[in-house]
Design brief:
With 291 residues, this protein is an alpha/beta fold. Helix content is 51%, strand content 13%. It binds NADP nicotinamide-adenine-dinucleotide phosphate.
Length: 291
């Protein structure tokens, strides 16, 4: 399979280099600016194209590694060249193949979303760490299993998902990466209120965050859970709520803790967490009188 790339950015360079280094025929690059295509071609030992028609002609599969908002526009532009028999791929985590490549069946091409679940931060170094990364693949039935076999043969891991699960998949990725930032930021702000500088707060939290994350990844979040919610210590949780600013931060604490109660209940089915849960879900005076 000969692979061409449109968009010579971080993901385009990383995939092209990774493929080329493992003996895959990478035809080369077309990009918005010819200089980028030339740079990527030199990096991967492939060709720079100043005309997408020639790249399409010489490739079996085309990766549209352009920003998400440009994928459909670029695809629409490519339709004039004739795409029959080609496989079009994009790497967005948020969009399905069908959404990105509308009416692709009319072109005779097939469409795939091939999302690396991996932070690609560098054009010229990320390929070194890509081996073993997960790719979430979705799209036309015609070549779905071919893509799985192809990627797995390159020591990448593949999960095929149905198109209607793509948004849920993306939400899951955002929760693990982006939403986690909100929790750490809230923690840092509370430490700043205790007199820590921002830098010192990050330094102080580092061992806690690192070892917790390591444990979560080793045994799963439910078994990694410790702390007042897990201990059913409603008194401490109540004190926490009293000092956390009302509004976003308190809502975050309540919602995350309610999720923790669900997890703790599954871990300790003999324990009765209902008073703690009622308190977390309550209003301004959330705790039952017995607390
Ligand atoms: N970075 C990540 O961590 C990551 C992870 C998973 C998936 N993805 C996905 O991978 C895709 C690419 O992201 P990226 O991080 O590689 O972006 P990027 O580094 O910003 O690169 C995008 C490239 O697209 C080119 N481009 C923009 N408009 C174009 C057009 N109209 N025609 C041709 N080329 C065009 C740009 O070209 P010039 O250089 O010529 O201006 C740029 O090099 C996105 O769908 C993204 O969601 C990214």
């Amino acid at each position: 399979m000969k692979i061409g790339l449109i968009g010579a950015g971080k993901v385009g360079c990383t995939l092209g280099k990774y493929f080329a280094e493992r003996g895959i025929e990478v035809t080369g690059y077309y990009s918005r600016t010819f200089a980028s295509a030339q740079e990527a071609a030199a990096f991967t030992g492939t060709k720079a194209y100043d005309d997408p028609a020639a790249l399409i002609e010489e490739s079996d599969a085309l990766f549209l590694t352009v920003p998400d908002r440009m994928i459909t526009t670029v695809y629409e532009g490519l339709r004039q060249y004739g795409l029959a028999g080609k496989m079009l791929c994009h790497c967005s985590g948020a969009m399905t193949a069908r959404e990105a490549f509308p009416a692709i069946e009319q072109t005779g091409a097939s469409g795939y979303s091939i999302h690396p679940l991996f932070p690609v931060s560098s054009k010229d170094e990320s390929y070194l760490e890509l081996e073993g990364a997960f790719f979430c693949v979705e799209g036309d039935d015609a070549h779905l299993s071919q893509w799985k076999t192809f990627l797995e043969s390159l020591h990448l891991r593949v999960q095929i998902i149905p198109g209607d699960a793509k948004v849920r998949y993306h939400a899951a990725c955002a929760i693990a990466s982006n939403l986690y930032c909100a929790l750490v930021q809230t923690s840092v702000e509370l430490l700043e209120e205790c007199g820590f500088t921002h830098a010192l707060a990050l330094e102080a939290l580092a061992p806690l965050v690192r070892s917790n994350l390591q444990r979560i990844l080793q045994v799963g979040p439910q078994d990694a859970l410790t702390g007042p919610v897990e201990r059913n210590d409603a008194g401490t949780v109540k004190k926490h709520l009293a000092c956390i600013p009302e509004g976003t931060e308190q809502a975050l604490y309540r919602a995350a803790s309610a999720k923790l109660v669900e997890m703790a209940s599954r871990r300790h089915p003999e324990e009765d967490y209902s008073a703690l849960m009622d308190g977390l879900k309550g209003g301004t005076d959330p705790w039952p009188k017995t607390q």
